[in-house]
Design brief:
Elements lengths: L8 E3 L5 E5 L3 E7 L3 E7 L4 E7 L19 H14 L8 E6 L9 H4 L2 H16 L2 E7 L5 E6 L4 E5 L6 E2 L1
Parallel strand pairs: 1-3, 6-7
Antiparallel strand pairs: 2-5, 3-8, 4-5, 4-6, 8-9, 9-10
């Protein structure tokens, strides 16, 4: 039996997005080069989390894209649309992002492709294009992280293995 104040954290898997309202929580586990995009409307207290895997869908045949939420350029607008369709206002949305680590190192940066950096850059560009203010981020580095969006406050908690969570 869970304590009375227990709030379940709904998982958001790779190439997925989900929305919830207060007092819900969304969690993206084990972000490496992927980027989690948190969008939150503080008035409606509705938020969403997107787990981006790749930056740019234009490098792929659009007929072969089964999960548009895999890509930053398609997933961010999808999440915005879902939040708007459930009572949120795009003009009030606040964005926070985390992830985009360089998980693999090597002497050939062309091979590594800096996918984490490219994911974070594309997310920032799409947010700017949509007029959504990016108010906090925890990106880069070479360690994975987990993030939790708490829709009762809009807080995003970032956890690294073995360390206490920090709020962005």
């Amino acid at each position: 039996m869970q304590p009375a104040n227990f709030i379940e954290e709904a998982p958001v898997g790779i190439a997925e997005y989900r929305i919830t309202s207060s007092p819900g929580r969304l969690i993206a586990l084990g972000l490496g080069s992927c980027v989690a995009v948190s969008l939150y409307d503080p008035v409606a207290k509705i938020g969403g989390l997107l787990h981006v895997m790749l930056p740019d869908s234009t490098q792929f045949n659009h007929n072969s894209i089964k999960k548009p939420s895999k890509f930053a350029d398609l997933g961010v607008p999808l999440l915005v649309s879902e939040i708007k369709g459930n009572g949120g206002k795009s003009s009030l949305l606040q964005a926070k992002i985390a992830g985009g680590a360089q998980m693999f190192s090597g002497s050939d940066n062309g091979f590594v492709m800096n996918i984490g950096l490219r994911n974070a850059e594309m997310v920032r560009a799409i947010l700017q294009k949509l007029g959504i203010k990016l108010i906090a981020e925890d990106t880069g580095g070479n360690r994975g992280r987990t993030i939790i969006l708490d829709t009762s406050s809009g807080s995003v908690y970032v956890r690294y293995a073995g360390l206490p969570a920090k709020v962005i």
